[in-house]
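Field: COMPLEX_INPUT
Field: COMPONENT_COUNT = two
Field: RESIDUE_TOTAL = 446
Field: MODE = joint
Values follow.
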Amino acid sequence: VQRELVDRAKRGDEEAFDSLARSVGDRCMAIASWVLRDVDLAEDAVQSALVRAWRELRTLRDADRFEAWLHRILINECYAEARRRTRWSAKIRLLPVDDRVETGGILSVDDRDQLERAFRRLSVEQRSVLVFHHYLGLPLPELAKRLGVPLGTAKSRLRLATGALRASLDADDRSNNSQERLA
Amino acid sequence: MTPRPDADARIAAFFETSQPELPDRAFEAVRRDIHRTRQRVVIGPWRPPAMFALARYCIAAALVVLLGILLVDFRPGFGPGGQPTPSPTPPITAPPSVAPSATPSAPAGPTVFTSPLYDYTITIPTGWIAAPAVVRWDGTKAPGPDAESDKFVGPGRLSAWAIAGPFVGDLEAFTADRIAANARDHSDTCPPDAFQVKEPFRIGDQPWVFLGWNCGALINEAITIRGGIAFAIVFRDLAVEAATDPADRAIFQSMLDAVELPN
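Field: COMPLEX_OUTPUT
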């Protein structure tokens, strides 16, 4: 169905593109939210990516790769939004902490806060690798292709970013253990 | 005390937390935007994807060397013992398809050039030299004086180039596409008010459109569509800061008057 919609959209069918956008929009919003950690910027990035995808759609050769192609556009828009955020940092509206999160009891509130802080300290490029790997579940070769970086770069970014998140949890665990011993 | 899940499990769980959905207003905004946004037109076939980058570099390097040698040979005063000086303009030489009576350095009169790739013919004024395109235009950028264009270099700061490729749409659509492409691809040098002239005209029975920009230099473009193939011939005078100039228009018109398109 998506292939047919892409083909129709390539011929200028706006309804078909609207259907496509609605089928992938939420996932794009999630990716952008993860990468940018800001609701408004994420929304802007997704809108820009969708409009750019419409403009460039005829350059897409394989309709089956539409979403992968769109994700690459989206990530570039996220990078652009992040650069703008650096210039206009006063306008940031941070992503609110969602207390309704269900993670099967694995993740404590402290864990989430630690991870959130560590995640925000990462560069947008490192965050992108983590999001594509953990949220989209992409293997490294596909992840590298989708981000438009060499495989070695993707591996390196994933290793560093994962290491940073692990370190934040380890530090938290050590702190908790010390407190338990003192008690 | 219960053992804590390992760090990787907690990191994986972190990425399972819910994220905001794209609100309806964003979809509506996209809908409005795409209605106002023209899709990029892809003209011509894609370049063969199997070509290795190294091969492309080798071909490009060989062409540069060849053109450089030919330029040195053809320019007056540049014999084997001459002292070459750096040239600010790219080396240009005569194409193999120029009529046999023409010589690259100093044609005796106007020369008929037949494009090897695009199959049209055009008359080159006396003193101009030509170099054919080496690769077909892929349609992803505004026509410029590079490898996809047949190039014509005149005296002073005059030059022209031409491209062609399949286009879905009529002449009006192609005209709009060229204007938009120029604004998109040359916004760094062309101010928003650079586009100033749009005039329909004919060469024989063939309808054409004449476009003029003042991009800090005179840019004139003649475009047409025939049999689903779009043709664009661009004339540039770096010495004139205007969208039109009578002398330039006369030279350009003399080139256009004898244009013959393939059937």
